[in-house]
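Severity: low
Component: inverse-folding endpoint
Summary: output formatting inconsistent between runs
Steps to reproduce: submit the following structure tokens with default settings.
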């Protein structure tokens, strides 16, 4: 059995951020990833939006880590040359009935200490002439980031600090002892490891890994988010455009990637298993929902694109759950339900996890 100081399980954006933070704090870090490349699951299947921190329950981990993570992320991107743009975001009320929802968002944003500018219909039209709204909010702190370049920069930092990433190295079992955690690793180079500390950041696989090493994880649910790309139409927006949030997600919004490509989504589809195919017949709902705030969307302009899977900790219809970052054993930190805004929060999650490993 080999002995290692600190193992992080899962090389998505969160595992990479935790691993680099631990390595920078002087730990010897081994990052284990089941797939043949890092960042191929949820971290490659999201909106790539840097969230300002508008929506999350005040005092929650989501609110705190998003606000802190957003600032760290902008600084990191500037310092490390990771492509990003602080393009801003317009949230729109398409009907009079939705004005109350805008007021709720303002209230939460204030409690979270996030700047948000109420704007009237004329200002919405000035900012985004194609968008129809009765009123809106403007968030100057929202932006977009190249998530793959970001993960590559975390990996580079991990390796500069002496850490190692092992690919095709799935954790398949283990045992918890007072003085060490043992892990069984399958894949190309099967091995058994005795670790001082373990961070479980396996995303959609977190509950499975937790049970395999003898933990009792919280129950999880899967909520798919489908995207449709805008094709054959000149990009109509300069900024991110979001409707009022819906249960389970932030509403079928328009995002622009760094190449200028516009896509819509993610919608909310509760599922029993992971299947990333996008059913093209969902386009009818997309047309209807987008046309409530962009009436000029032409027929035939939407093409089924990709999907991501939200690792939920509350079922359909229940109030949204917070991130779960637990310390079930002095040598283990376990992360569950790291859905949005996990990408934005990644550096702050890394700080939070590193601090927990010292307690
Ligand atoms: C549709 C959608 C849109 C989103 N949009 C945004 C957004 O715009 N902004 C934002 O801030 N956040 C967004 N998010 C959230 C964000 O994408 C996630 O919070 C983040 O990517 C989670 O990263 P992770 O590292 O926890 O998980 P993952 O990226 O899933 O990584 C987990 C890794 O663990 C590995 N693994 C699993 N089991 C094992 C095992 N047994 N052994 C070893 N490795 C294992 C997996 O292969 C995977 O690589 C979105 C999420 C979704 C689903």
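Observed output (run 2 of 3):
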């Amino acid at each position: 059995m080999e002995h290692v100081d600190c193992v992080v399980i899962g090389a998505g954006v969160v595992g990479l951020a935790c691993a680099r933070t631990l390595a920078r704090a002087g730990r010897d870090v081994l990052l284990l990833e089941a797939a043949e490349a890092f960042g191929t699951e949820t971290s490659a299947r999201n909106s790539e939006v840097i969230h300002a921190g508008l929506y999350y329950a005040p005092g929650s981990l989501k609110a705190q880590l998003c606000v802190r993570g957003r600032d760290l992320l902008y600084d990191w991107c500037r310092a490390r040359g990771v492509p990003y743009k602080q393009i801003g975001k317009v949230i729109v009320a398409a009907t009079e009935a939705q004005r109350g929802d805008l007021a709720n968002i303002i209230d939460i944003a204030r409690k979270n200490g996030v700047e948000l500018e109420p704007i009237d219909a004329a200002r919405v039209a000035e900012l985004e002439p194609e968008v129809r709204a009765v009123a809106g909010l403007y968030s100057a702190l929202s932006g977009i980031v190249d998530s793959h370049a970001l993960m590559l920069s975390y990996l580079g930092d991990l390796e500069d600090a002496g850490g190692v990433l092992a690919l095709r190295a799935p954790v398949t079992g283990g045992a918890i002892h007072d003085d060490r955690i043992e892990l069984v690793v399958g894949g190309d180079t099967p091995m058994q490891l005795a670790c001082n500390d373990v961070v479980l950041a396996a995303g959609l696989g977190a509950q499975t890994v937790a049970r395999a090493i003898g933990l009792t994880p919280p129950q999880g649910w899967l909520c798919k988010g489908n995207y449709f790309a805008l094709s054959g139409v000149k990009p109509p927006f300069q900024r991110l455009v979001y409707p009022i949030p819906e249960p389970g997600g932030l509403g079928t919004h328009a995002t622009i990637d760094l190449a200028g490509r516009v896509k819509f989504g993610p919608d909310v589809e509760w599922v029993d298993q992971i299947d990333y195919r996008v059913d093209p017949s969902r386009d009818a709902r997309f047309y209807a929902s987008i046309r409530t705030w962009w009436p000029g969307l032409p027929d035939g302009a939407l093409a089924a694109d990709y999907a991501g899977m939200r690792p939920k900790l509350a079922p359909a219809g229940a109030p949204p759950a917070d991130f779960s970052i637990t310390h079930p054993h002095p040598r283990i930190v376990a992360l569950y339900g790291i859905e949005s805004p996990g990408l934005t929060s990644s550096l702050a999650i890394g700080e939070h996890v590193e601090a927990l490993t010292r307690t």
